[in-house]
Automatic annotation (TrEMBL):
Domain of life: Eukaryota
Enzyme Commission designation: 4.2.99.18
Annotated HhH-GPD domain residues: 154-344
GO cellular component: nucleus
UniProt enzyme class: lyase
Catalytic activity entry: 2'-deoxyribonucleotide-(2'-deoxyribose 5'-phosphate)-2'-deoxyribonucleotide-DNA = a 3'-end 2'-deoxyribonucleotide-(2,3-dehydro-2,3-deoxyribose 5'-phosphate)-DNA + a 5'-end 5'-phospho-2'-deoxyribonucleoside-DNA + H(+)
Ranges for region Disordered: 178-197, 356-407
Name this polypeptide is given: DNA-(apurinic or apyrimidinic site) lyase
């Protein structure tokens, strides 16, 4: 059953799982609304009805997505002037094509994820035994490089919940509203319209007073990094966003060198941007968490040590970890790394496990971002994790990746 107002795109969840991809720390602006299925839908689709609607604001529209096991459902919401123009069938058709083109590009739907999972499972016993079936549908997004750069500058020494809050505050504080749209009619109160903002442009974040405003919003030292990066790009390039898009055409080494010129961009942030928005599929962003995965599961030499039981990240360790994982997974190593990283997140501890009724657990985003307390944050992929010791896992609770003897 296609939800009212949506268009169906045949796409099995093994090719794209919205609940996983939009929660694993790639993008921080998707908002999810829980859906309460009507009795009619429950009767016709007792286990297949979409459970959430996901929304994302572009410059000229809001993308709305739902999903069942076999289809992706999409529609776009436009500002009033564009919506009025869409009364012309030709305009409506063009806008529909634009939305579909964006979906294909953003989710990189030309890449056969099922084939990649099969390849990784053949190359890697850890992937085959722990990840392949349980964590299906996790693919790499192809994001706007400008948004990606600023988002990951905010990621320094941070966790997913707080990064989400910071990125969304950038939008609401520095970018005008695009449009309003009620929450899904079968979800929250439809009488309370939601306001959507696009990501601010470099010019909007380059103003002199931006850093002080960001400090007031809780960005800390990252406030200067954000403002200075925007200012640098505006001073040096007539069209900063076109310049960043142009880096996709450069070699990995040359694109990395350009990114490292930006304020607040170090090797790991640069590699996140290369992987997530610049088509460098083999790049593996490395931090202490990814280093621990390589030590535990992939035979990388070394013993965890140092403060908090972690080895300081040196250029030598960074290169060794990345090389080992590329050797293990091949040309799409960065994509495989994202799946393994997601599988090891505490928030995914029960993902894909059967419930008492035998139905796999369906993961979801909260309706509004709520940053976790420091002791609840997921790993240290985005920087230094809290030093507070984790509580011992309760007996019988879901485990993370199991140690498997490598071949």
């Amino acid at each position: 059953m296609v939800p009212k107002g949506f268009t169906a795109l045949p796409l099995p969840i093994a090719q794209l799982s919205l609940a996983a991809v939009l929660k694993c720390g790639q993008s921080f602006r998707w908002v999810a609304y829980p859906l309460v299925a009507s009795e009619e839908i429950k009767a016709e689709q007792p286990t297949e009805a979409p459970t959430h609607e996901y929304r994302f604001a572009l410059k000229d529209r809001v993308i709305c997505l739902r999903q069942d096991s076999n289809s992706l459902f999409y529609r776009a919401v436009f500002p009033k002037d564009v919506a009025d123009a869409c009364k012309d069938p030709k305009v409506a058709k063009k806008k529909e094509e634009e939305t579909l083109d964006w979906l294909n590009d953003y989710f990189q739907l030309d890449v056969d994820l099922i084939s990649l999972y099969t390849e990784w499972a053949e190359r890697d016993v850890v992937f085959r035994e722990n990840v392949k079936d349980r964590f299906a549908g996790i693919r790499m997004l192809r994001q706007d490089p400008w948004e990606n750069v600023i988002s990951f500058i905010c990621s320094s020494n941070n966790h997913i919940g707080r990064i989400t809050k910071m990125v969304q505050s950038l939008c609401t504080s520095f970018s005008p509203p695009i449009c309003t749209e009620p929450s899904p009619e079968d979800g929250e109160d439809p009488s309370s319209p939601q306001v959507y903002h696009a990501f601010p442009s470099p010019k909007q974040l380059a103003a002199d007073d931006v850093a002080s405003k960001l400090r007031e919003l809780g960005f800390g030292y990252r406030a200067e990094y954000v403002q200075r990066t925007a200012e640098m790009l505006c001073e040096e390039h007539e069209d900063p966003q076109a310049y960043l898009l142009g880096l996709r055409k450069l070699s990995t080494e040359d694109a990395r060198a350009e990114l490292l010129k930006l304020c607040g961009v170090g090797p790991k942030v640069a590699d996140c941007v290369l992987l997530m928005s610049m088509d460098k599929k083999m790049v593996v962003p490395v931090d202490t968490h990814v280093h621990q995965i390589a030590l535990k599961y992939y035979g990388l030499r070394g013993t965890p040590s140092g403060k908090g039981g972690k080895v300081p990240m040196t250029p030598k360790i960074y290169e060794a970890v990345g090389s080992k994982l590329v050797e293990t997974w091949g040309d799409y190593a960065g994509w495989a790394h994202s799946v393994l990283f997601t599988a090891d997140l505490r928030s995914f501890a029960s993902y894909g496990l059967p419930t008492p009724t035998g139905t796999p657990v369906k993961q979801s985003l909260p309706p509004t971002p709520v940053p976790p307390t420091p002791s609840e944050s997921d790993s240290d992929y985005f920087g230094t994790s809290p030093t507070k010791k984790r509580k011992t896992r309760a007996s019988g609770s879901p485990s993370k990746l199991k140690r498997v003897k490598t071949e």
